[in-house]
Write a structure and sequence with these properties.
binds magnesium ion; alpha/beta; five-stranded parallel sheet; single chain; binds guanosine-5'-diphosphate
Length: 387
């Protein structure tokens, strides 16, 4: 069947900020320069993605493909920059990703004038420690705006099963323009929402859950949401760092999104459409990790979920908190995480008194309780009419 994404030309300006994937060559072990870039890039209105050190090229390229980042920033401190950046360029081209904005920086050989000329020949704009970080942001924004001008396309036809590459591209199109998938997929993917306060361990638990489900040959889409700050527009998309081992799996597709903390109706609709696209790629399950949540209303997000999981910390779960209103009321399941370091009996007592649905004690560090969580999810899918 031929499907298409169709819609008007109104650009979703509040949805789309340019993304840059920050990387180190596989053998380079120096992440400090990356950390120095993150906040200045956010201030320039750009979402930086950082995935961690020591990743093979194949993993870097798969991440670039799934995130469909507008720019790739490479920090080189050891090795021959021309060989390393040449290799990256070849790998990106091989994966059909030749249109990226490429920037590079670092120390050592990259500072030599003839090296900069070589890298310019490969398409990289080089920024060195003497350059103001703002210049990197300004360069990326300028190139991004140029690319945006020529990339508005309203109707996109495609065959019913999406490739990984097309899935990534279509998600970007949805970020750009309010499009509708026609017809909607018959088989939806089962949507599991992971919510809870920042730092409760949502990403770490998701990594463990994916590790188990991956062994069962289940196809999984993952949406990771990180917050834009109240002052700066860009968001640091850093959740992938906790799931590095999962990013090479052919059955897993991970995409990061910057979100405002109030989850407007438009952004919830957008996330729903992304999960429909995941279904067309073949995903049986879509996980959505929300930005850290507190006591604000999460009702709109609740609409999105076939299964709403609330991740809580034992020390912060007591009767007083549970008796107050909050997002935890929407939960089908509570995970009391970090039981390797915090006693849980008081939290359990409070949950038994004030929470009607099941809870599990878990640890993302030791893996305790993760099998039970996976069984719970799979059982729910079995009983789900659209799953
Ligand atoms: N001791 C312990 N630490 C954990 C556990 N799960 C996560 N953490 C740590 O808690 C911090 C926040 O974890 P993260 O997964 O980023 O939380 P998120 O903000 O809810 O996604 C990190 O330093 C993790 O290593 C756990 O089960 N036990
Ligand atoms: Mg997280």
């Amino acid at each position: 069947m031929n499907r298409f994404l169709a819609g008007g030309g109104d650009r979703e300006t509040d949805m789309r900020t340019p993304k840059i994937l920050l990387i180190k060559p596989p053998l380079d072990d120096h992440d400090r320069p990356i950390y120095d870039l993150i906040v200045p890039l956010r201030k320039a209105g750009i979402d930086p993605i950082w995935t961690g050190l020591q990743q093979p090229w194949s993993q870097i390229v798969k991440t670039a493909l799934e995130e469909d980042a507008d720019a790739i920033g490479v920090s080189v401190h050891t090795g021959d920059p021309a060989i390393l950046l040449g290799k990256l360029k070849t790998e990106l081209e091989r994966a059909g990703l030749s249109e990226k904005i490429l920037v590079a920086g670092g120390s050592g050989e990259i500072t030599l004038p003839d090296m900069q000329a070589k890298l310019a020949g490969l398409g990289y704009k080089v920024f060195l420690s003497g350059d103001a970080v703002e210049n990197i942001g300004a360069y990326i924004m300028e190139k991004f705006r140029e690319n945006q001008k020529c990339s508005v396309s309203i109707t996109e036809h495609f065959e019913s099963r999406l490739s990984r590459h097309l899935l990534a591209k279509h998600i970007t199109r949805l970020e750009n323009i309010n499009l509708t998938l026609v017809p909607p997929p018959k088989k939806k993917s089962f949507r599991v929402l992971l919510a809870g306060p920042a730092g409760a361990g949502k990403s770490s638990l998701l990594n463990k859950i994916l590790e188990k489900l991956e062994l069962r040959e289940i196809k999984i889409g993952v949406m990771l949401c990180d917050p834009r700050g109240p002052k700066e527009k860009g968001a640091f998309l850093g959740d992938r760092v906790w799931m590095q081992e999962r990013t090479l799996s052919e059955n897993i597709f991970i995409r990061s999104f910057s979100q405002l903390s109030n989850y407007s109706r438009r952004s919830v609709n957008f996330l729903k459409k992304v999960s429909d696209l995941f279904a067309l790629w073949g995903a049986d399950i879509t996980f959505l990790e929300t930005i850290g949540m507190g006591q604000e209303s999460a009702a709109r997000l609740g609409e999105l979920a076939d299964l709403f999981i609330w991740v809580a910390l034992p020390n912060e779960t007591d009767s007083m908190r549970l008796m107050k209103g909050g997002a935890h009321e929407l939960a089908d399941l509570v995970l009391l995480n970090k039981i390797d370091k915090e006693p849980s009996f008081k939290a359990e007592l409070a949950l038994k008194q004030h929470f009607q649905n099941p809870y599990f004690k878990v640890s993302a560090h030791t893996g305790e309780g993760i099998d039970e969580v996976c069984e719970f999810i799979l059982e729910k899918i079995k009983n789900n009419p659209c799953g």
